[in-house]
């Protein structure tokens, strides 16, 4: 079985380590833990690994966030990946910092990357792992907040959160979304 694991983010040095690039950061942690190397390919940086006989294609789109669907569609078609084997890693300001929430679908919640993926695939029914950023920003400052970096006290907690996210990715591929949601989504 093949899975496409997509980390959302923006390309360019100015976006590295920003909150909005948490999808890239989680995928980098997953790749590092599995000794996977990314190669620049069409529509993004792609890494390949296996987990207990399952093939995982790791994708960091080289399109900007609001065009992520182009990369997702291309790699799903290129690798013949079923919709239920797609997992998108994304930031979410509606969740408290560090909260990890796996969902089988739903609205884009105003996230331009998710919105474009839904438009391109013609459905909102694809799995996403949402990483909570919190919403501790003044009114009208959302863009500056998500494009900003984590403060030191949150940055210190990221390695443990990345490790948990990597566990969720593996469980999604091995046990499926229902079991993984039951195990990892805390009420």
Features:
187 residues, globular, 7-stranded mixed sheet, 7 strands, alpha/beta, Rossmann fold, 22% strand
Structure description:
- It is a single chain.
- α1 packs across α6 and α6 packs antiparallel against α7.
- A hairpin with a 2-residue loop joins β3 and β4.
- The chain has one domain: Rossmann fold (3-Layer(aba) Sandwich).
- It is α/β, with parallel strands linked by helices and 187 residues long.
- The protein has seven helices and seven strands; from the N terminus they run βαβββαββαβαααα.
- Strands 2-3-4-1-5-7-6 form a seven-stranded mixed sheet, sandwiched between helices.
- The longest helix is centred in the C-terminal third of the chain and has 18 residues.
Give the helix/strand layout.
Blueprint: E1 2-7, H1 22-33, E2 39-41, E3 44-51, E4 54-61, H2 68-79, E5 86-92, E6 100-103, H3 112-121, E7 127-132, H4 142-146, H5 152-155, H6 158-175, H7 177-184
Parallel strand pairs: 1-4, 1-5, 5-7
Antiparallel strand pairs: 2-3, 3-4, 6-7
Helix pairs in contact: 1-6, 2-3, 6-7
Number of domains: 1
- Uncertain spans: none
User: What's the shape?
Assistant: globular
| Tally of strands | 7
Q: Identify the strand order in the major beta sheet.
A: 2-3-4-1-5-7-6
Count, helices: 7
CATH architecture: 3-Layer(aba) Sandwich
Task: Assign the CATH superfamily.
Answer: Peptidyl-tRNA hydrolase
- Overall mean pLDDT score? 95
What is the share of helical residues? 25-40%
CATH domain topology: Rossmann fold
The main β sheet shows up as: 7 strands, mixed
- The proportion of residues in beta strands is 15-25%
CATH class category name: Alpha Beta
How far the N terminus sits from the C terminus, by CA atoms, comes to 31 Å
Over all CA atoms, what is the radius of gyration?
15 Å
């Amino acid at each position: 079985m093949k899975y496409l694991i997509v980390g959302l983010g923006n390309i360019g040095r100015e976006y590295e380590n920003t909150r909005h690039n948490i999808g890239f950061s989680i995928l980098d942690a997953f790749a590092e833990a599995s000794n996977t190397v990314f190669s620049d390919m069409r529509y993004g940086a792609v890494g390949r690994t296996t987990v207990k006989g399952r093939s995982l294609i790791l994708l960091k789109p080289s399109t900007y966030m609001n065009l992520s669907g182009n990369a997702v569609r291309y790699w799903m078609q290129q690798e013949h990946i079923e919709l239920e084997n797609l997992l998108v890693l994304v930031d979410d300001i509606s969740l408290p910092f560090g909260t990890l929430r796996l969902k089988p679908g739903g609205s884009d919640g105003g996230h331009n990357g998710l919105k474009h993926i839904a438009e391109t695939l013609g459905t909102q029914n694809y799995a996403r792992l949402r990483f909570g950023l919190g919403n501790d920003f003044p009114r009208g400052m959302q863009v500056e907040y998500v494009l900003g970096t984590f403060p030191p006290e949150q940055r210190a907690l990221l390695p443990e959160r990345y490790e948990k996210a990597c566990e969720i990715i593996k469980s999604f591929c091995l046990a499926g979304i229902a079991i993984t949601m039951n195990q990892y989504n805390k009420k």
